[in-house]
Amino acid sequence: MKVDRQEQEEARRERIARAAFELFARSGLEATSAQDIARAAFVSRTNLYRYFPSKVHMLLAHFDKAVQASRDDAIERLRAGASPQQVWENVMTRMADLGVRYRHLVGAVGQAVLGAGPEPAGSAAQGQLGLGDRLMGAGNGMRTALTLAALVEPVLLAMQSQGRLRPDANVATLSALLVDACLLALLHGGHRDQREVLRDWQDRFSLLMYGALAPVPGTGEGLRASQD
């Protein structure tokens, strides 16, 4: 009985997050009201506040699930024998596509993740669904940042095991830096299409990866190793 109850709770939570994201994608975060979300998710407004204290939390909950699915797919590809570079390009292309398609939501995700920190005391009890201080104080922002880093890390570990990254390279730190570079590029790049996003990311990644890539034999340089 308890398991059934937990499953029902999780299913309702996912339904709210999915309904909220669909509304955000159509109308934007600010233009979507709590009542709109409650109606689309077939729950009362009271239940809405029970599961999520803010619209940003709803957005990040759906985003986390999508990132986790991408991570599972990346790990499966690596296990099937795909090269880390192929998997990396697939992940980056998918993220760039989402970044362009939902560019009006990138600001909320990016600021919540890059500004992730402890929630202000008592803020969850306020039941507010506006952005305000919730944006920078959203506790889920830290979890989302870790989820994003966990998406990148398996690819870097595979590169390291193949000798493409220096053995002493700190993969966890590098993963976090690459994620920050992705988000900052989306927030401030003003990209018009996926190709522009990928070009911007490549420039940033080349700088970040320069010291981490293992030297190419005969050149003493590692900058091109990730592109072979």
Protein described:
Keywords: DNA-binding, Transcription, Transcription regulation. This is TetR family transcriptional regulator. InterPro entries: DNA-bd_HTH_TetR-type_CS, Homeodomain-like_sf, HTH-type_TetR-like_transc_reg, HTH_TetR. Residues 33-52 bind DNA. It comes from Deinococcus aerophilus. It is a single chain. The chain is 69% helix and 0% strand. Mean pLDDT is 82; it is low at 117-138 and 219-228. With 228 residues, it is an all-alpha fold. The termini are far apart. Helix 8 crosses helix 9. It has helices at 2-27, 34-41, 45-51, 55-79, 84-101, 103-114, 132-137, 140-161, 171-188, 194-209. The radius of gyration is 19 Å and the shape is elongated. It has one domain (54-227): Tetracycline Repressor, domain 2 (Orthogonal Bundle), CATH 1.10.357. 33% of the residues are buried. It has ten helices and no strands.
Write the layout of secondary structure elements.
Blueprint: H1 2-27, H2 34-41, H3 45-51, H4 55-79, H5 84-101, H6 103-114, H7 132-137, H8 140-161, H9 171-188, H10 194-209
Helix pairs in contact: 1-2, 1-4, 4-5, 4-8, 5-6, 5-8, 5-10, 6-8, 6-9, 8-9, 9-10
DNA-binding region: 33-52
Organism: Deinococcus aerophilus
Domain HTH tetR-type: 10-70
